[in-house]
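Why does residue order matter? Because the sequence determines the fold. Keep that principle in mind as you read this record.
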Amino acid sequence: MLPTLRSGDVVWCEARPDARTLRVGDIVVLAGRAPVAHHRDDSADWVIKRISALSTQIDEQCGRGHGSCEVRGDNPDHSADSRQFGPVPLENVLARVAFAPSSSGGVAHTGVDP
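Structure:
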């Protein structure tokens, strides 16, 4: 996710966000090893990417989505993302990033209230 996030950065997340609130542009934590196949650490059980497209059918009772999203890294020339592994099921969205490090060394709000 360079330049937005660097290895070792700490982010504040909203766990299991309601699928009705997911938006294109959100930074999300995804479950699974497939998205990190080209990553140096093959032991990772999750990856952080930005939602680039959504296809959802929402269960209004529980707010969970029955659909998928496409994700991209912020450095497209060096990112394993939906261009390689395809759409990601919404049930694989573990969290949405609410706060992340800013380029000035502080913390930036990503537009999501935790």
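The radius of gyration is 14 Å.
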